[in-house]
Amino acid sequence: MRPKTVGAAWENGIRGTPWRGPLRELGLAVLVLAVLTACGIRPTDPIPGLEAPTGPVENTSPSLYWVSAGGGVVPVGRTEGSLSGFDVVALLAQGPTNAEQSRGLFTEVPLDAAPATVDRVANGLDVNLSSDVSQLSASAVQQIVCTLLAVQPVGTVNLRGGGHSLEFQKCA
């Protein structure tokens, strides 16, 4: 019997198997290069767009809060859709519809409270009224606060106007 001879492939580390040694690395490199160049998508510069929205989502069909004959504030849905973009304080100051009035609902938000501006802040909303907030009734404050938090449920409402402020108001 003759002893087995080890060939050059054994000495070079290939050892007769095509998936071992230097051929393996070369094959993987060619495969990766082929996959990357064959996709057909060419690189482009970033496409500019608008900033992504942040914060809580606005309620698209919120309610306006009116004062009931019993003295509390009650939510009433409006069928015309979103209150987003409207001066909610102005809507409250105008008062309820005839149908809502016939149900015994009314407003305590004075006409001179509008126009108002609403800004988002870290803890909720800052609302600047056109009238003195120290002259608002407790029901008027609740009407404004509850309606705004129904539109944007963000925490608390800070009411400002006439050199006074009512901080960290919540819907009760």
What does this structure look like?
- It contains five helices and six strands.
- It is of the alpha+beta class.
- It has a domain at 63-169.
- Strands 3-4-5-6 form a four-stranded mixed beta sheet, covered by helices on one side.
- Strand 1 and strand 2 (73-77) form a beta hairpin.
- The termini are far apart.
- The mean pLDDT is 79.
* Relative helix content: 25-40%
Distance between the termini: 101 Å
Computed over alpha carbons, the radius of gyration is 35 Å
Biggest sheet record: 4 strands, mixed
Structural class: alpha+beta
Mean pLDDT: 79
List the helices and strands and how they pair.
Elements: H1 8-11, H2 22-37, E1 63-67, E2 73-77, H3 88-94, H4 98-102, E3 117-121, E4 124-128, H5 138-151, E5 156-161, E6 164-169
Parallel strand pairs: 4-5
Antiparallel strand pairs: 1-2, 3-4, 5-6
Structure summary:
27% of the residues lie in helices and 19% in strands.
Name its key features.
single chain, 172 residues, alpha+beta, four-stranded mixed β-sheet, two-stranded antiparallel ribbon, 6 strands, 19% strand, elongated
